[in-house]
Each structure stands twice: as C-alpha cells, then as structure tokens.
Amino acid sequence: MKYFAIGAITALSTLLAVPAFSETRLVVAGSEAVDSLLDRMAVRFAANLEASDSDAFNVNLVRGQSLGSAQQVMEQHQAGSVDVMYSRPDWFTSNVSDFQVMSWGFTFRDRGHLNAFLGSDVFDKMNQKVVNEMGVRVLAAGSDQPRILYTREPITSVDDVQDIKMRVPGIKAYLKLWEAVGATPTQVAWAEAFLALQSGAVDGAEADASGAYSQKFHVAAPNITLTNHIISALHISVNEATWSSLSAEDQATLKEAADEAVAWASETGMSESQSVLDTMVIEGATVSEIDGAPFAARAGVAVPTMESEGLWSEGLWQRIRDIEG
Predict the structure, then answer these.
(1) Which of 205, 213, 212, 235 is nearest to 91 (CA)?
(2) By 3-state DSSP, what share of the chain in percent is helix, strand and coil, each rounded to 5?
(3) Where are the beta strands (DSSP E) in 11-83?
(4) In whole angstroms, what is the distance from residue 76 CA to residue 97 CA?
C-alpha cells in the first residue's frame, strides 16, 4: 500500500503526476487548515489504511485548501474526482435540505444527544438521501467541539447581538438562525473570515475552538462567549461509485479506517477544546460563559417557520429532540 500526503502548494501538479497503480487509487481531500482537527483526522484515516492488512488502496491525501472551498471539494466529491472527503455534514445541505437541521442552533442538548442521533434510524434515512441524491455516503460520523462566539466587543446577553454583523458560511440554516437571534448574518468565506473580523467588515464569527484557533479568530475578535449553540458533527464520506467498485472486504477495511479516525477525532476534539481556549486566553483573549436559554428560546420559536419554508422536513426537528441520549 502506498500513501502520499500532498502539500497545499504542489497538490494538484503532484496529484496528476502520480503514476498509475494496480490498487484502487483513493483521492482523499477536504478544505481544512493543515494541522486542524479534521486535517489530523484525515491523516489518521490514511495511516489506518496504510497499516491495514489490505494492499488494495493507493491513498493520495490532499491537505489544506488546495482543491478549493468545502463546497467546491464537495462538488468534486460528487463528481468522483475526490473519492473520500473529510468534512462536516453541513455541506450536504445544498442537495439534502434535511441536514440544515444539524446547523440549527440548540437542536442537540449535548454531545450524548448528537451521538444518539448519529446512531439512529433518523440519521440513517438522511444518509440514504445523500446516497440517492448526491452519489456519496457517510462512512463514519461523530460529535465535534461545540460552536461558540468570537466577537470584537463583549457579549453579555442576547441583547448584545442585536444587529451585529455575524460572519456565517453559505449555509441557509446559519443565516436563518442568526436572523432569528437578532443579528445580521453576513456570508464570508472561511479563509477570509479573519480579515473580515480584523477590518471590522463583520463584528463577530462563530466556530469550534480548534477551528477558530487555526484561523486566529481570537486575535481579531478576542471576546469569546461560550454559547455552545451548535454541537457540531464531523464525518468521512465516500463517493458511491468508488464504494460500489470495492469488494466487500475492502469496503469493510475502508469503513473500519474511517470509524477509528472519526472516533479519535471526536474524543481528541473534546480533550483539546479547553486547552485551546486556555491558549487563547494566554494570547490575550477573554472567555465568558453566558445564559443560553434566551438564545435557545428564539431559535425554538422560529422552528415552525423554518419547517413551513422547507428548510428541513416537517417534524424532523421534534423527532430529533425526542431521541433519548
């Protein structure tokens, strides 16, 4: 088995220059910063395949944002030029609207609730929609760090976010959530978020601790507020045509490698979250807790409207809320 880790600058040229092998050639890619949690998850996934008993895989790991944004990598994933993608389920929302519910604030009570959902029939049905409508399937999914706020000015209550410009990704649920809370959501690419915060083009952004640290959000927006409004998920997915081309034995090897890497990232993410926050404080940031109930109340009131607008299937939010965990 051969495993190539490809750097950000020479990724495309190196990738095209790799000679053909008899093994199944797997292009593994995402859009995460090098050494971020998801990037390290991908490295572990590739190492798991390399350490397996199978000689079936020739892995080409493309790190960083060499292939573009998360949405661009997802499009390549669907087309089959990226066989395996490491990311978050948010990026299924362009084709399968039900995944918007995972980006809606306060859908999940805690990590246990999210993990119970990821092991439920509800999630299995959503994954099948991804297979049918996008031509990719989730191999493994797990809980990530909670998403919290990074703002230029302190936030002490929901009143302080009224009309502030919040950086959000191009995902409808994020836009609608911050509208419901009272902020003014502003779409800015992940790679441009630091400069937007630094320049004042936006007043705040939200992200998990490790992801925000990799982008130095805390330098431009040193007021960190532990809203924990979204319990994020992370996943590894495979192009369906690639999956179908594998033997049952090789499918099992691929899934086992993904399961272990995702489980590692999930546990590592939580253990690192506090240490990352501590580092941010050392580097000049301030971390504050906040009463999340007023935020959650506004998000809950907006759910019927979101469902009537077709943001996700009617009743899905409540079915998720009813899952014990």
Answers:
(1) 235
(2) 50, 20, 30
(3) 24-29, 57-62
(4) 19
Domain ranges of the chain: 2-321
HEC letters along 255-295: HHHHHHHHHHHHHHHHHHHHHHHHHHHHCCCEEEECCCHHH
CATH superfamily of the 2-321 domain: Bacterial extracellular solute-binding protein, family 7 (3.40.190.170)
List, for residues 112-144, the tens digit of each pLDDT value: 999 999 999 999 999 999 999 999 999 999 999
| Single pTM value for the model | 0.84
The 10s digit of each residue's pLDDT in 197-214 is 999 999 999 999 988 998
For the chain, give the number of residues.
325
CA 13 to each of CA 10, 60, 67, 265: distance values in angstroms, whole numbers, following the listed order: 6, 12, 11, 29
CB burial class (10 A; 0-12, 13-18, 19+) of residue 282? exposed
DSSP 89-148: GGGGTTT-GGGGGGGSTTSSSSHHHHHHHHTSHHHHHHHHHHHHHHSEEEEEEEEEEEEE
| 194, containing H or E segment | helix 193-199
Structure-token pair, residue 154? 């302190």
Pairing state of beta strands 204-207 and 136-151? antiparallel
CB-CB neighbours of 132 under 10 Å: 12
Task: Specify burial of residue 117 (Cβ count, 10 A radius: 0-12, 13-18, 19+).
Answer: buried
Q: Measure the CA–CA gap between 98 and 55, rounded to whole angstroms.
A: 38
CA atoms within 13 A on the CB side of 36: 25
The residue among 169, 32, 47 whose CA lies nearest residue 87 is: 32
